[in-house]
Amino acid sequence: MIVELRQYTLRPGRRDELIELFDKQFVESQEELGMAVLGQFRDLDQPDRFVWLRGFPDMAVRGRALREFYGGPVWKEHGPAANATMIDSDDVLLTRAIVPPPAFPRDGERADSAMRATIWYRDRPFDDTFTQWFAGLNTGAVAVLSTEYAENNFPALPVREGEHAFVWFTRPVNAGEIEAPERFGVVKTEQLRLMPTARSAFR
């Protein structure tokens, strides 16, 4: 599965407005075209940051589905209102799922379930040696992603180029932290504390 990790910087005080619009208008309308709206989140440390995950079976479906959605009637009607809440929507990592995000019924009963996303970066791809080391740990990871190197086949939506990223999600948000051994050459770590929105399938 191809997964986009999308982090949007919003205009101050507009996050709940975007989430209400997104959860109402942009979930089923994308999934009808073959995409998976995997998860939508509030960043608990950045009040004007909206984070979401979008999945595709493969890159061919991605190219087709994005063209159809952004050229279609739902985005034509509601896209301007969504864009009006945003300062930047180009912070996007294109990844491939090693462990796909789990999906729960969107509108079922739920408890608060904040989670943490850890993003490791290095100056070369994360190879099989690294992924095998990670798989042997007791991380509690519920989803694992790594950079997809295929060319962006919908250039109207930029993705971050030249990144080598490894992303893993844990819950609860205070699950034990793990540092990659120095031999693996991790040069930067980011952590996101995320609260799923009311209609997030990943929670």
UniProtKB/TrEMBL annotation:
InterPro entries: Dimeric_a/b-barrel (IPR011008), NIPSNAP (IPR012577)
Annotated Pfam families: NIPSNAP
Domain (NIPSNAP) ranges: 3-89
Designated name of the protein: NIPSNAP family protein
Species of provenance: Actinoplanes aureus
